[in-house]
């Protein structure tokens, strides 16, 4: 019911005890506010309109007006202050229930305190939707029992939410919600229905067609249509057992939504953050000590996720927005591999007609739906008609004029929503709506999108064109879409003179929107929909791993996603400093970089990526430098609000530096590393070697300027600092010294430069111990750096961080090529150390079978004792790596070897519930009744974990049901009873377990 209310466009609250003229006091005393079930009727809907007993309007909660079927309904005065006073619910929560995520369960439970229900249990059943709890209704159990059950379910959800949050942060998964919300905000009711009813879509949805490709020209509305399909598919998957669903929007404006790695992280999160997969991911998170996950780790986790479903539907929007070249090739190759490896996967993808994508879809035998004009013209006509009915001025036009506009724009749009949108914008800006003026405008419409963009740029007043160009640079090339507050700051930076930011010359928030009207749009962010905290995970709550079920086209996000001038509420008040802005369409950036603009009168706005990144680098550094010397800085978190661009500038200037023209580093970079004050202020906000630290929480183990320049990979700056006398071997920083920092980051040229200028290749220090280990540990397989270090005399068997060698570090990280190089250079495959016991155990524990096989081929001793688990066989058995178990047994591993804290391989496999491994060990002669240190026997270990199938298998192989031994509860029956495993207890009793056996 709560979900039903939340999906409603508007809800009507009829107050039977309030007359139309009885005033505020009578409203506040209404029985409606004392009933239990009306609490969700108040909180779930976006808009509630209150009516008196004579059906007269009293006022509203939520938006002041809604449009239903093209009709504008206004709700009277806003009543949030009065309702908040009556209910003790914060106004922010009344306006947007997702804001309640900041409140504790106890605060929410207090809302029901003064309410009544006819059945006492309903006092708590009415709260299920508020907490998103699902539990059986059991009338007759009493209010206290209902409350206790509700609290238990809330506690379970809280624990699960905590796990999800930690896994999300660990994965650093891009969030598809903002793209989805923005697309839904642009959706017109009824458009796209033809697609949902089409035979091609139905056949794909039902499984007869495996892959579907929606191909359309620029501006044909592919993303909005995609969002409509995503909602339909999500609903379909929710009612289909063991059906997984994940959606991803590739985005040219967001660096975190462009590569296969980005896609992989998002898919793992969306498919994996629900039980039972969540438990596996959370366990992997707890066992991992790596800050960054390797591609191999990610592929292993994706495999677990995909194999947990009978069918997985992946929806991929805008494949053509992957950067051309290696990035796009990688995405397409991996998609082909996924399709071949997992037969339970089906794709739906959208893109323009691009040769490489066309070839992939042909290879995948994907059904193609070409979004030609005859398919979408009806949707465009509906869109234009609705816009004419919505706009404050256009809706007053004569019906014949509206028909003329609708007909002309639909006829000439050639299937491009983007073109129609731009022409409507121009019509809205007309000073006169005389029929002749409108007819003249329609006759002179530009033929293409590029011609439309020419007109928009040339309409910008000459005195603000410099600001417009700078804003376009920021919107087009920032790592991710930036906020209005940040864009205001971008235009106070003067690079023509001394390169300073004039904090006294800030403009208004809406200045940027007004200057670039028609070229940019507002992004529907998480904060528009709920909480936003830059220091929380990048994904947040994806509704248990998927896009939120709410359709923001029915919310205030609809207006947020449109051109600002198209909103009736355009007064500047709807925009905040945090409101995010992006280019209106991919075609805008293509146009700005194209040769077309160079041949037009708008050529002053032409953008060159390398040049623009250089200017953004200078702008960020100028902002940091100006902040450092500004008299109002507090060097606290308050500065993140006072100086809105500070955090982005600190975290991203070197991203722009890496994308600029090679060899163009200059004085601004040098100033950052040579001025102690400026560098200190930069590090207070962001430490590149400790990027998990929050701003203004202190600088830990500060390094030198050379150290940070080496970490970032600024070769020219590194050389300049060395020539100025920087100590190439100075210790400091999380990684240890400049050589280790460059090695860990994989900057080959900087590594070679430092070695040529006297860097000590075997210097110890830092988190990794030495440079070779730092290069071997990186998640990016820096084999070139490893080779350079070895050629310069790096000790291949030196022990460093956590007592490991480079080989142990590379094996633990699964870097096969690095392992091969180290072994060729004489690395000892049997050296002990590093916590696990030896190198082979490390590789097996992390699940790297290929590395384990390589080590075995190079002479690794599979029976060597050491570490927590004892032998390699025990490690493989504990992890459930059946292939490795078989591999080491075939090579002669001792199946009954004792060691480690659990005793032997059979016991650790039984303890973990790995049925296939247990079967392999038993077939290879494992002693089913062998005693071990912790559990005593394998049967007791399996009983402790409640692993029923393993218990049955062990009993079938002759396990002694009454065997004594182990800690605390020395037999299987007592262990199973203590853990509450009722079915295991029954099994053991059926096999003759003695109830009164002594022990424990």
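-> sequence recovered:
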């Amino acid at each position: 019911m709560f979900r039903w209310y939340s999906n409603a466009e508007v809800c009507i609250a009829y107050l039977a005890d309030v007359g139309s003229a009885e005033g505020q006091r009578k409203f506040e005393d209404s029985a409606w506010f004392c009933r239990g079930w009306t609490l969700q009727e108040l909180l779930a809907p976006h808009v509630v309109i209150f009516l008196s007993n004579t059906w007269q309007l009293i006022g509203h909660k939520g938006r002041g007006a809604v449009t239903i079927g093209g009709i504008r309904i206004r709700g009277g005065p806003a009543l949030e202050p009065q309702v908040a006073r009556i209910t003790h619910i914060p106004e922010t929560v009344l306006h947007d229930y997702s804001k309640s995520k900041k409140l504790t369960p106890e605060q929410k439970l207090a809302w029901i305190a003064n309410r009544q229900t006819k059945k006492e249990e309903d006092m708590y059943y009415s709260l299920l939707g508020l907490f998103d709890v699902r539990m059986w209704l059991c009338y007759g159990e009493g209010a206290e029992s209902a409350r206790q059950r509700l609290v238990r379910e809330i506690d379970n959800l809280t624990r699960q939410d905590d796990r999800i949050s930690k896994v999300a942060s660990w994965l650093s998964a891009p969030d598809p919600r903002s793209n989805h919300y923005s697309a839904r905000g642009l959706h017109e009711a009824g458009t796209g229905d033809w697609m949902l009813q089409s035979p091609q879509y139905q056949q794909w949805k039902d499984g007869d067609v495996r892959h579907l490709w929606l191909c359309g020209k620029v501006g044909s509305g592919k993303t909005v249509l995609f969002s409509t399909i995503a909602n339909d598919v999500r609903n379909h998957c929710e009612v289909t057992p063991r059906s997984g669903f994940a959606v991803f929007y590739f985005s040219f404006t967001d660096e975190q939504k462009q590569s296969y790695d980005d896609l992989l992280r998002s898919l793992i999160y969306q498919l994996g953050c629900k039980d039972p997969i969540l438990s596996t991911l959370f366990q992997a998170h707890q066992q991992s000590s790596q800050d960054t996950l390797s591609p191999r780790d990610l592929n292993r986790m994706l495999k677990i996720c995909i194999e947990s479903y009978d069918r997985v539907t992946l929806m991929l929007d805008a494949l053509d927005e992957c950067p051309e070249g290696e990035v796009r090739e990688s995405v397409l190759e991996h998609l082909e591999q996924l399709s071949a490896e997992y037969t339970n996967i089906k794709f739906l993808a959208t893109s323009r007609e691009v040769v490489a994508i066309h070839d992939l879809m042909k290879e995948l035998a994907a059904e193609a739906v070409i979004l030609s004009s005859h398919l979408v013209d009806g949707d465009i006509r509906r869109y234009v008609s609705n816009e004419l009915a919505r706009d404050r001025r256009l809706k007053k036009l004569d019906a014949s004029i509206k028909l003329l506009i609708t007909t002309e724009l639909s006829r000439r749009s050639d299937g491009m929503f983007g073109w129609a949108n731009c022409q409507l914008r121009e019509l809205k800006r007309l000073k006169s709506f005389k029929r002749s003026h409108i007819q003249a405008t329609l006759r002179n419409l530009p033929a293409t999108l590029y011609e439309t963009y020419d007109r928009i740029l040339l309409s910008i007043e000459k005195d603000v064109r410099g600001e417009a160009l700078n804003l376009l640079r920021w919107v087009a090339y920032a790592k991710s879409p930036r906020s209005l507050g940040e864009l205001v700051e971008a235009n106070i930076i003067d690079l023509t003179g001394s390169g300073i930011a004039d904090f006294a010359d800030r403009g208004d928030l809406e200045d940027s929107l007004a200057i670039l009207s028609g070229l940019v749009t507002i992004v529907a962010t998480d904060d528009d929909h709920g909480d936003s905290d830059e220091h929380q995970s990048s994904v947040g709550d994806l509704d248990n791993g998927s896009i939120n079920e709410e359709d923001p086209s029915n919310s205030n996000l609809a207006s947020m996603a449109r051109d600002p001038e198209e909103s009736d509420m355009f007064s500047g008040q709807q925009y905040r400093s945090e409101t995010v802005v992006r280019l209106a369409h991919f075609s805008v950036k293509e146009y700005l970089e194209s040769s077309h603009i160079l041949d037009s009168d708008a050529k002053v706005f032409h953008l060159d990526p390398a040049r623009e990144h250089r200017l953004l680098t200078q702008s960020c550094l100028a902002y940091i430098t100006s902040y450092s010397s500004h008299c109002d800085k507090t060097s606290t978190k308050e500065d993140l609000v006072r100086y809105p661009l500070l955090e982005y500038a600190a975290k991203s200037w070197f991203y722009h530096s890496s994308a600029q023209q090679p060899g163009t580093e200059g004085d601004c970079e040098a100033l950052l590393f040579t001025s102690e004050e400026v560098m200190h202020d930069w590090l207070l906000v962001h430490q590149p070697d400790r990027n998990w630290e929050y701003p203004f929480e202190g600088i830990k183990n500060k390094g030198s300027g050379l150290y940070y320049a080496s970490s970032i990979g600024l070769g020219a700056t590194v050389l300049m600092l060395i020539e100025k006398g920087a100590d190439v071997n100075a210790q400091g920083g999380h990684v240890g010294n400049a050589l280790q920092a460059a090695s860990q980051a994989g900057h080959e040229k900087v590594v070679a430069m430092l070695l040529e200028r006297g860097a000590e290749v075997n210097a110890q220090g830092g988190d990794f111990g030495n440079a070779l280990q730092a290069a071997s540990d990186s998640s990016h397989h820096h084999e070139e750096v490893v080779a350079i270090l070895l050629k310069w005399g790096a000790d291949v068997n030196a022990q460093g961080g956590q007592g490991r060698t480079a080989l142990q570090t590379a094996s633990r990280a699964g870097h096969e090529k690095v392992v091969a190089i180290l072994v060729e250079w004489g690395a000892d495959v049997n050296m002990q150390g590093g916590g696990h016991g030896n190198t082979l155990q490390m590789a097996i524990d992390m699940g790297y079978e290929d590395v384990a096989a390589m080590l075995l081929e190079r002479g690794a001793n599979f029976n060597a004792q050491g570490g927590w688990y004892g032998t390699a066989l025990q490690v493989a058995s504990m992890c459930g790596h059946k292939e490795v178990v078989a591999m080491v047994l075939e090579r002669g591993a001792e199946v009954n070897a004792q060691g480690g804290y659990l005793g032997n391989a059979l016991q650790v496999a039984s303890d973990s519930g790995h049925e296939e491994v247990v079967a392999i060990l038993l077939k290879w002669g494992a002693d089913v009744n062998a005693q071990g240190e912790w559990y005593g026997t394998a049967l007791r270990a399996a009983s402790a974990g409640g692993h029923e199938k393993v218990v049955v298998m062990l009993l079938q192989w002759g396990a002694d049901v009454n065997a004594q031994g182990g800690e605390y509860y020395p037999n299987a029956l007592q262990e199973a009873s203590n853990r509450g495993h009722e079915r295991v207890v029954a099994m053991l009793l059926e096999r003759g377990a003695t109830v009164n056996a002594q022990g424990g």
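Residues 526-546, 549-561, 564-573 have pLDDT under 50 and may be disordered.
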